[in-house]
Amino acid sequence: MLKIVEIEARLFLRDRLNSLFAVLFPSLLLLLLGAVPVLRTPDDVFGGQRFIDTYVSALIVFTLAFIGLQRVPTVVATYREKGVLRRLATTPMHPARLLAGQMIVNLVAAVVSVLLTVFVGFAVFGIDLPHHPLGLALAVLLGGAGTFGLGLVIAALAPNARAAGGWATAVFMLLMFFGGVYLPRFLLPSVFETISVFLPPGSLAVQEAWLGTAPDWRHLLVMGVISLVAGTVAAKTFRWE
Q: Model pTM greater than 0.90?
């Protein structure tokens, strides 16, 4: 398992363009948004806070969803399309280990991206550090696991890399909509807002941990169940070729 994680980590670092984008883009976007004076001005719409203060949680949601749904499915499906998985099938390695290796490496990349975003926000714009660090850590881990689990299901079922990319992009767009990345969550219809709190990457859980109290345990539990179910389905439906 350690060798698989090591190899997947090396492959992640060799794919410099996509890897750097996945890790650095949220911080760069925060810098661009923070350069707009009106977004650094407190507004009653955001409870007396600045837009950039409230948007950090959306950037974390974007990070988890992008890595889990834009990298993971495409990489695994490309392995299958190029015959890498067919050759691995001749070894004693169980497919669950390959999927777990993908999960671990990409989750570490997501955590690095989140920490970098936190540092940039605090150092450059004076954005408060998370008010509930443990709650944020749980929200990121469970929300990331749920999102990556969905990405692994797509990777397991997609017939080729192009299909995996298309399916993953559709799911990515939906999660971004429900996660408040395109529109603030309070502008969504009430039924959509209710649905969004239970979907990974857990926009409300991240926002609660960042701005105030501990996330609702029910939201974390549902995301944990989603990650467990998705990971099981991915392992059961995985195809070497």
A: no
